[in-house]
Amino acid sequence: MIGRFQPFHLGHLKAVEYVLSQSEELVIGLGSSQYKRTPRNPLSTDERYEMIVRVMRSVEIDLSKVFLVPIPDTESREESWGSIVLDRIPRVDVAYTNDRETRIDLEAVGMEVFPIPLYRRDILSATNIRRLAASGNSLWRQFVPDPVASFLDEIDFEGIMRDITEGGKS
Hints:
Helices cover 41% and strands 12% of the residues. The protein is built from seven helices and five strands. The strands form two sheets. A three-stranded parallel sheet has the order 1-2-3, with helices on both faces. The protein has a two-stranded parallel sheet with strand order 4-5.
């Protein structure tokens, strides 16, 4: 399962639970791993790793069955992003995603790809959460697991979002 998790929200948690109900182990690819402190990718790979581990512990998911792997975006059109993914993850039997481009890239390197049931997609969007945080609207907290909200408070997520979006205008 690959995502940017900017930040990890309740829909992501439902996706993790779903994939673990279908599989013995889960590799979570932290996409766009080379970026941080941008409006679309405000959190570093380490910060996303910490968020996800805290959530897994809080819901008692066996961390020995979950592997977190940074996955960078491709920097050139000649480079196969699907191959980049395969080079960085342990061997897997299937992949799960709802992202069209990710599905195409992974199928191109021979992976079988399945969709993930969406949970409250109308409101559970990291884009929405980032926008709310940038504007100082604390409603974003209801869309993330409690350990994520606590961690994001520790690192001043709202301040980070305000700083990188120039006061929440972009």
